[in-house]
Write a structure and sequence with these properties.
Number of strands: 2
Bound molecules: zinc ion
Largest sheet: 2 strands, antiparallel
Structural class: mainly alpha
Strand order of the largest sheet: 1-2
Shape: rod-shaped
Strand content: 5-15%
Radius of gyration: 21 Å
């Protein structure tokens, strides 16, 4: 009987390990890793106005300035029409 309990314990530990691994992989594939070590010139994401501090997931150099974006979607949006977004905030 004791053996059975041990077995259940081991299985649940294994399951837990697998689940957390899966979770980490999912986070990475969604680009969840922030580039917190990167210092960007813009305080706000020009596209969605999100604070770039601790939220930079993509960067772009435009007119010698390093712009940070919360996601590659915002970066792409900015690339389509940089002046539109820059004139809004400056
Ligand atoms: Zn954004």
């Amino acid at each position: 009987m004791k053996l059975k309990i041990d077995y259940v314990l081991v299985v649940s530990v294994i399951m837990l390990t697998f689940t957390s691994c899966e979770f980490k992989q999912k986070e990475n594939s969604m680009g969840g890793e922030t580039l917190s070590h990167v210092e960007v010139d813009n305080e706000l994401d020009p596209v969605c106005n999100m604070h770039t501090k601790d939220n930079v997931r993509d960067t772009l150099t435009y007119q010698k300035k390093l712009y940070g974006f919360c996601s590659s979607n915002c970066k792409e949006e900015f690339q389509k029409n940089p002046n539109k977004y820059l004139s809004q905030n400056q």
